[in-house]
Structures are given as C-alpha cells and as structure tokens.
Write a structure and sequence with these properties.
This protein is α/β, with parallel strands linked by helices and about 250 residues long. Helices cover about 45% and strands about 15% of the residues. Helix 1 links the parallel strand 1 and strand 2. The structure holds nicotinamide-adenine-dinucleotide.
Amino acid sequence: MNKTVIVTGAASGIGYACAKLLSQRGSKVVGLDVQRKKLEKHFRNLDNAIGLCGDVSLDLDCINAVKSAVENFGGLDGLIHCGAAHSSARWDELDPNDMNRILEINVTGSFLIARACANHMKKNKSGSIVLTTSASVLFGVTGGNGQGGPAYVSSKGAVIGLMRSMARALGPDGIRVNAVSPGITDTPMVASYTKEQKTAMRERFPLRRFAKPKEIAEGAIFLISDKASFMTGENMHINGGSNFGG
Ligand SMILES: NC(=O)c1ccc[n+]([C@@H]2O[C@H](COP(=O)([O-])OP(=O)(O)OC[C@H]3O[C@@H](n4cnc5c(N)ncnc54)[C@H](O)[C@@H]3O)[C@@H](O)[C@H]2O)c1
C-alpha cells in the first residue's frame, strides 16, 4: 500500500503495530508520540518512517506532524490516531482536574489531529481518517483494577460522536472518517489490570483471549485503504466477540 500516513501513539502498542505494518507494506509513516526515547528506538528500524515527539492535545504539534508528512514525503493520505491517555479512577475517586486532562488528550486531541489532517486533505479532495474509541463504551465499565473508569469511558464515547460529525462534514470533500473500537488488547495500557481481573475478562470473551496489537492495526489499515472506499462514519468493533454479552 503506497500511502503517506500519520500514526499517533506510534511509540507503543496498537500505534506502533500500525506504523510497523504500514512501513513493511510500502507506505510512508510519520509517527507522533509524547514518548521520545521509545519512539526513536522503535522507528530506528522502520523504512520510510519518521518519529516525531509531540502531544496531540497541542494544536501546533498536530500541525507540525502534517507539515512533516508534506515536507518529507510530499503529501498526506491517511491518519490513524491511536494516541490516548488511560484513567481507571472510579466515579467517587476521580479528581475533576484528571477528568479534564483525559478529555483534553482523548477528545480535544482527536479533534486537533483530525482537523490538522483534514485541512491538508481537503486540498486534494481525498483522504482517510481513523480515530480510536473503545469497547469500554459498550459496557460502561466503572474503573478500578486497572480497567477504564468514567473519565476514560466518556472520552471514548465522545470520540464516536466526533467521528460521526466529521464524517458528515468532510464527506463532500472526499475525506472518509471512521473509528476502530478495540476490545482488551495486550499493550502497556492494560498492564495495570490485576491478574484476577484479566482472568475474569478472558472468561467472558468467546475467543478466551485478548487481542494482539497487530489484530487491531489490521482493521485500522483496512479503513484507511482504498478497499474501504465506500465506508465512512463507521465504528469497527474488533473485540473477539466480547460485545454480544455473556
Ligand atoms: N489496549 C487496550 O485494551 C485498548 C482497548 C480499547 C481501546 N484502546 C485504545 O487504543 C489506542 C492505543 O492504545 P494502546 O493500547 O496501544 O496503548 P499504549 O499505552 O500502548 O499506547 C498509547 C500511546 O499513546 C501515547 N500518548 C499518550 N498521550 C499522548 C498525547 N497527548 N499525544 C501523543 N501521544 C500520546 C503514549 O505515549 C503511548 O505511546 C488508544 O486510543 C486506546 O484508548 C486500547
């Protein structure tokens, strides 16, 4: 796939899996993340990939990522936005400042990076944006034991609304906007789940395991590819069947 793609959260987990697969398949990648050292270490071995230290909740960092794609690779075809912050505080222990910080990174950050990319893409009347929400929205998980609490879950719910609104607004400019909604995936984000919590969750899932980062990345890459040329405003669930209850 010969595309130029910005991947956020590219230093870790699902974002890094996206960057690696895209690079291996002939695309050019600008990876954005706040973790400079990890990003440098991972990107050293990727072809046609640039690691950029930046924060998606800062407008200038998002604009710089687009500039980097244009200056280094001559354009921008896609965005896979994985960068996000986790919060497992329960409703009765959540500090309002922490709530605002999670919303700023996960919601405002999704908006700022999507807007920066769309501003470039609309000039060419083509492009594809993939945001990341979470299966936690389906379950309304309550936090504790490492799982997402109200700050995280509400931020990921807001991402679905943002994705739908932008899909409608940008469709006439030839820009598709979709989301992936991962179930529990083996990345540092779920490292703080207790052993008991992990076992209980696995038993609820028909496939009896968590996703590998690559399995979520494949869905996101499909959505930015031309194979998904008639898909927009969709939330693709990739969760091992965990959303049909049990
Ligand atoms: N792992 C899961 O079980 C799971 C489940 C559902 C949804 N998700 C979502 O998938 C996406 C990827 O998560 P992951 O599991 O790979 O987690 P991860 O912790 O491995 O990676 C997240 C990356 O985002 C980066 N990041 C955090 N704040 C940032 C900011 N302000 N600007 C730029 N980068 C920032 C982090 O440094 C990190 O490298 C996230 O949006 C997450 O909410 C993950």
